[in-house]
Amino acid sequence: MQIKANRELAVGLVFLNTGLFFLYYGRGYAIGDPFNMGPGFLPFFLSWALVALGLLQLVRAWRDPSLVGIDIFRPIIVMASIAGFAYFLPWMGAIVGAGLVMLITGILHPKFKFKFWLVSYAVVIALILVFKFLLGSTIPLWTF
Amino acid sequence: MDFLTYGLASILDPTTLLFCLVGCVVGTLIGVLPGLGPTATISMLLPVTYGLGPLPSIVMLAGIYYGSMYGGSTSAILLNMPGEPASVMTCIDGNRMTRDGRAGAAIFTAGMSSFIAGVLATFLIAVFSPPLSELAFKFGPAEFCLLMVLGFVTVGVVTTGDMFKGIGMAIVGILLGTIGTDINSGVLRYTFGITDLADGIGFAVVAVGLFAFADIAKNLADKLDFKVYQGKINLWPKKEDLKRLIPSSIRGGAIGSFFGLIPGGSAAMSSFAAYAVEKKFSRHRDEIGQGAVEGVAGPESANNAASQTGFIPLLSLGIPENAVMALMLGALIINGVQPGPMVITKQPELFWGIVASMLIGNLFLVILNIPLIRLWVQMLKVPYHVLYPAIIAICCVGVYSINNNPNDVLIAAAFGLAGYYLLTLGLEAAPLMLGLILGPMFEEYFRRQMMISNGSLMPFVERPISLVLVMALTGVVVYGFYKMFRKGPINKPLDVTEKSN
Description:
The complex is a heterodimer of chains A (144) and B (501).
Chain A: E1 2-6, H1 7-25, E2 32-33, E3 36-37, H2 41-63, E4 67-71, H3 73-107, H4 114-133
Antiparallel strand pairs in A: 1-4, 2-3
Helix pairs in contact in A: 1-2, 3-4
Chain B: H1 2-11, H2 14-32, H3 38-49, H4 54-79, H5 88-99, H6 103-136, H7 141-160, H8 163-177, E1 180-181, E2 188-189, H9 203-222, H10 239-261, H11 267-281, H12 293-309, H13 311-317, H14 323-334, H15 342-346, H16 348-369, H17 373-379, H18 384-403, H19 406-424, H20 430-452, H21 459-462, H22 464-485, H23 496-499
Antiparallel strand pairs in B: 1-2
Helix pairs in contact in B: 1-16, 2-4, 2-16, 3-4, 3-9, 3-14, 3-18, 4-5, 4-6, 4-12, 4-14, 4-16, 5-6, 5-12, 6-10, 6-12, 6-13, 6-16, 7-8, 7-20, 7-22, 8-20, 9-18, 9-19, 10-11, 10-12, 11-12, 14-20, 18-19
């Protein structure tokens, strides 16, 4: 599924919200003065700069109403399966987890074939073993 | 002299040699495969470099970077499909040569010209880095700050093509870089009580998210696909071709070297410039666009030179000029090297080892990419849809292994999602990455300068070197405005491949 959005407006909102976020949560940090800057000095001024850039983008959005198509579901599925890998790793181990991630993300492509999945899965398992036994990763391999 | 003592010692070291070869092979591979670029690969392999030591890490990552410049030309020539952004220009004449039955000559030209330019660039690194680092000893914190600002602004201007967006992304990066413990006051900033965030967000984690995961999501949406090349490749070059490729390679090498040096310059940009120069000044300029050797030699030599001279500012000043160099800086830091002008004098074995490895690496690559080219053509038979699920899985395992922490994988996924949406909005991740890596350094230098100068901003314009940097910065900003307010759509994607058909 795709949605259309005004590109400049979306960029403006990204900047504006990021700026406001850092301003809001950074409000407790001492700003200090130029001679002796506090931890809040740089975030404070940069957040305001970002807010200003965001506002400027809003003006530009009004002058340039070009639209951009944004794919909604596919990226979310990809990232959700990665997040799922991280979350369920202690319960299922890397070998099962990697297979599942590859399956879920692979199916998103119209040309997905189980045969190819199997071959690349074998390669990935070999590489996981390299991480575990040669590079000293403590990743859990198998938990069942 | 230092070269002989330190450089040779490191080339003769089998571990360094091995990592150089690994880097070159991986670089060629990902260069050949469209849809997998050097930035994504280097971020993917950053986790692996933990504990390798600085020299093998950089030798390998550098090999990947310039190796991908060699490999990228193969798919450009055979499939009219750039293997990575810097070989876009090679498509035009390179693929035309293939259609004229001269695929072998085009591949030979690309490999040979890259080699000539690579040796030239290595020579420039050896000659110019030491004096530049001497000069850098005269730099105060003000100069370093300005250099970084210059980097943020130029990278912003050239990658997004829109100064405000680029600067915005750099600021987002610096803000993300403030997450964690403030080194001056010990205050925890933006950690929300999460202990994992006290050390800040790991840049390798962010890099995998922004470059590897987001790129894959983008390629999925773009439905990347290609046909396999079935034709013949006759590598034996004609004398005429040889004669024509040398001047172009030297011109391209010089242009590429320049673009590698300037802040925000990239291998891709240098290949555009080199192609334009060939079109204007080469002896056979009227043939360019119709399968001329110069049209392949120019851009291919330029991108290889640029990917190497980018190390000059990194190793002599400690300031990266683009996203890839920022990742290299990160690799140095995680291996315990504090980048800066002292590196060359304090750790000569590192600097000269890198220089020597580049000579060897280019030699490996010219062998990999000319006599062994058929191997890589076979590789092109692996379609992207088989590849990307495996890349995702390996990235997950790699990110986990950085700190043996599953939360890092979650952070990478979050950055992947954000990065994908930012990409579709025309917001490139490169300035953000630069901001994230350089941000803490920038803050540190800025604070120090303000303390020295009693809260006055004057040192930023008073001192001769800083004045020059301010002038350069003004120039870039003026250029940025000019680029923004010229007529035409704000974000025009580069689409040269279509013109070539």
